[in-house]
Specification:
Chain lengths: 568, 161
Amino acid sequence: METKEFMIIDGIPVEIEGEKNLLQMIRKAGIELPTFCYHSELSIYGACRMCIIEDSKGNLDAACSAQPWPGMEIRTNTQRLRKYRKMILELLLSNHCRDCTICERNGNCKLQDLAKRFNVDAVRFPNTATEPVRDTSSHCITKDQSKCILCGDCVRMCDEVQKVGAIDFAWRGSNMTISTAFDEPLAESNCVGCGQCAAVCPTGALVIKKDTEQLWKELDDENVKVTVQIAPAVRVALGKQFGFAEGENAMGKIVAALRRLGFDEIFDTSTGADLTVLEEAKELLDRLESDAANSGFPLFTSCCPAWVTYCEKNYPELMPHVSTCRSPMQMLASVVKERFASSTRKVIHVAIMPCTAKKYECKRKEFEVDGVPRVDYVITTQGLIQMIRESGLVFEELEPEAVDSPFGIRTGAGVIFGVSGGVTEAVLRRISSDKSAIGLHTIALQGVRGMKGVKEAKVKVGDRELRIAVVSGLGNVRDLIERIKAGEQFDFVECMACPGGCVSGAGQPYVPESEVDARGKGLYAADKMCSFKRSEENPLAMPLYNGLLKGRVHELLHVHYSGSEKEE
Amino acid sequence: MNEAFDPTVVDGILGIYRHDPSAVISILQDIQDHYKYLPKEIFAQVSKATGLSQSRIFSVATFYENFSLEPKGKYVIKVCDGTACHVRKSIPILNRMKKELKLLENEHTTEDLLFTVETVSCLGACGLAPVITVNDKVYPAVTPDSSAQLLAELKEVEANA
């Protein structure tokens, strides 16, 4: 018989169930130990020392990097520990900007939270904070070194999870900073704009670019017609901030809020996703038909702009394998801008996105027509939350509204784009010959769902077995590409830069990995509520292909990135 | 160091260490032995071979005082500022040499790339304090005047070269 093992935390026995470190034990015991540098998905760093505990002999240790053992006795809240924690905070604050009221992260900053929690009412050291040291070169992320506490979360996220390695510690001792190689501006480094560094940053040192100020001006201007699209992942991440459950679909209220904010036409990016499914499935089938030698495989998806940038920067030789399909955002934007081309008012198109890299994508030259972008502003979920708050709208009380026609008509296939595996599932629904309800279930059970970083499936299409990989998190993408280079064969690879897909995009309110699942489930629930499940069933598809898109499919829905050596 | 960058040099060094990322310090040391500093061009090459990001290599290169990202002079003069040399007045030697070479506070290398003057923490020759080295040749019991004279001699050698 297995005997249970216990340790004592603050006088209470707690069972050890394979926890890797004391911190997990302590949190299991219902104690929220403070940390700056601990994230379960990152390696343990032990730098911030906020999680120090005291053992029965009076020794101090960082809980994140100490292992529990049976019979161990620790205390987490003694006079000495409180004193040290407070001192650490004072030392961090001694060279930190304290203008919280004008900080982007005001109210959402771990340093501010903990200073409040530990009742830091004065800092006994002189304030040696420097002026802001800003890098605003990137369209996606702003870095202000003066607000950095050197916890290294961003470095480990970029290096370990994303395997991009754009930033690292540089210099030494009191001169230490977080820096790109040679302190180049972020925009010139190998940064792909995924924003995951900013998602884990506990302070205002790394923040997502906001473009809300300019957008307010457009909304106020009566001569401007402001059209907007809402990405799938936004609807399941925004509600939590207004008291709804994580993952609860708030689409109706979001639409109502946008209408009240002054947007003229409100559409759903899922409609664009339906077009993407139709185009990408066609591309896959065309390749299957024409390419007997398999040289065109695998076909990589192209929805995720951080992945596309990553591929361009690290594997330019693979760019011919990346689908020529524009992202759903760009497809819908093309269609919307064409539809309203004859408007007497100036037409602006805004995209509400869970994503930071979209801010870069919308500025790419490839999507400009006569110097005008298809998407004028990308606003993140967090940006929209801020706008709603600023407007004074009581979100909780808004009556849900429907999106506008015609580009609000979407299928379930387009909705699930927001979660890793969704694109693949949508494409499979399109190309599968089994159009029954059971066929849908069969596809869902092929192993493409779930939050795992790498999912593989083999699916029969006609007489051919498709080898599919669904990968999220750029680190996993890199590993898969290395496997492909080593000779493994895949036909279709879905790549999403953020772990779990767009639901955990850096533009969303941050939640730990363990809670992202609820957002994915929210999207699958939304899929169930759709009358149409397959993109080809979208009633809008036929009129579009026979109308606006006639003879212009390639021009409006596809792209050739100029950085790549892609040939027609 | 106007030597044109030659990737084969770095390739050779990377080969010795079999592109092992854990040998990055040794790799950088060997590269610095060759160029006397770490030219910017080597970072992409070392990154590609070892799989380490350029920012990580930059991190290592800036952490250790011994690595230099700036080209160094033909004569690298190290003024020992360990405890023994310090109490026997090494700083006046440093100041005098910088003055002779017209180097500002944060400058270490002359514009003509002839001299680099820097401090070092203990050369392990405390009995000879204060000590300086010129390209690893040790000069014991230096005074500000003797250091100025040494510089003058080196300048003359160069003028006649």
